[in-house]
């Protein structure tokens, strides 16, 4: 099964600047209600691998996110595979009169129960990220 969710916000930062800020997942950790730790494992060109320590319903979960930054510096894609789920987060940063429009598209792929649960929990977490982005940078 495949399911998607898109979120968007406008911030008072320049697109490339804010893309670089959020592409460093150590900054995203401060906005994400489930992340408890992020470390850069390795970096090669435009590709990074991040170790992410999450807490899902109180239980620890460690996974690795493979990130590729777009050539134009105005977007990136994070992809994780964990517990039968493939999650792809596609971020884009576009010029806007007030600064930048930030858009994230989350794509959940796996067995129906895993996709349903992950979209519910992950969707709530990412809505909280966008609320924090709007509050702190909007």
What does this structure look like?
With 138 residues, the chain is α+β, with helices and mostly antiparallel strands. It is 29% helix and 53% strand. The chain has three helices and seven strands. A seven-stranded antiparallel sheet has the order 1-7-6-5-4-3-2. It is globular and about 40 Å long.
Low-confidence stretches: none
Spatial strand order of the main sheet: 1-7-6-5-4-3-2
Main β-sheet description: 7 strands, antiparallel
What value does the average pLDDT take?
96
| Shape descriptor | globular
Determine the structural class based on helices, strands and strand pairing.
alpha+beta
Alpha-carbon distance between the two ends: 35 Å
Query: Which strand-content bin applies to the residues?
Result: over 45%
List keywords for this structure.
138 residues; alpha+beta; seven-stranded antiparallel sheet
Structure summarized in a few sentences:
By secondary structure, this protein is of the alpha+beta class. The protein has helices at 15-23, 25-29, 112-137, and strands spanning 2-11, 35-44, 47-56, 59-69, 75-82, 85-96, 99-110. It is globular and about 40 Å long.
């Amino acid at each position: 099964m495949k399911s998607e969710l898109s979120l968007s916000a406008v911030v008072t930062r320049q697109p490339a600047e804010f893309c670089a800020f959020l592409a460093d997942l150590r900054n995203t950790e401060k906005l994400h209600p489930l992340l408890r730790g992020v470390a850069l494992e390795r970096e090669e060109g435009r590709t990074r691998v991040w170790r992410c320590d999450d807490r899902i319903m109180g239980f620890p979960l460690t996974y690795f996110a493979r990130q590729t930054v777009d050539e134009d510096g105005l977007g990136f894609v994070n992809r994780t595979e964990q517990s039968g789920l493939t999650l792809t987060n596609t971020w884009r940063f576009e010029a806007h009169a007030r600064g930048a429009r930030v858009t994230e598209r989350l794509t959940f792929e796996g067995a129906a129960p895993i996709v349903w649960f992950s979209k519910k929990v992950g969707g709530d977490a990412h809505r909280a990220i966008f609320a924090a982005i709007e509050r702190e940078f909007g």
